[in-house]
């Protein structure tokens, strides 16, 4: 049982850390770079990125972080580790919900506008997408996922002290 508990906690920590990196990279690099681009580039590049990110590696981390943290919480043996894992689970569940309720519908609406070469008013499509709203919610995802990662890292430290 010890090996299963530790393996689940390590896997939860790794996948959550990967997701903190993904959301963080979008926050401080991808959206900043796209924000400096013209409307055609913004719409086309964002659509391409959104299509590309839905792949097995991303989904393994995105869904895996939630499932593995839940498994870790279920397997956590006591009061020293469980609060940290539960905090991580709550934070990442919030991130998961924001992604599904806010960011994905915004992404889908931008994709539904069609190919940039077929859009008569790219500025209107970009404006309707609302970069500021997308980025604000992504900042929440970045901070919450980073905090969840920190909680899981601390759970590993506590696990190590317990022996």
TrEMBL record:
Residue stretches spanning the membrane: 6-26, 57-75, 81-102, 136-157
Domain of life per record: Bacteria
Keyword annotations of the record: Membrane, Transmembrane, Transmembrane helix
Pfam families: Anthrone_oxy
Signal sequence residues: none
The protein's name in its UniProt record: DUF1772 domain-containing protein
Source organism of this protein record: Paractinoplanes pyxinae
């Amino acid at each position: 049982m010890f090996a299963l508990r530790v393996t689940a906690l390590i896997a939860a920590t790794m996948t959550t850390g990967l997701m903190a990196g993904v959301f963080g990279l979008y926050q401080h690099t991808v959206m900043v770079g796209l924000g400096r681009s013209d409307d055609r580039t913004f719409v086309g590049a964002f659509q391409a990125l959104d299509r590309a990110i839905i792949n097995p590696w991303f989904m393994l981390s995105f869904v895996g972080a939630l499932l593995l943290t839940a498994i870790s919480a279920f397997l956590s043996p006591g009061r020293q580790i469980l609060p940290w894992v539960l905090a991580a689970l709550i934070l990442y569940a919030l991130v998961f919900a924001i992604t599904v309720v806010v960011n994905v519908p915004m992404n889908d609406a931008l994709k539904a506008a069609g190919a940039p070469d077929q859009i008569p008013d790219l500025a209107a499509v970009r404006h309707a997408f609302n970069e500021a709203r997308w980025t604000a919610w992504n900042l929440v995802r970045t901070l919450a996922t980073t905090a969840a990662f920190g909680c899981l890292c601390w759970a590993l430290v506590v696990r190590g002290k317990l022996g």
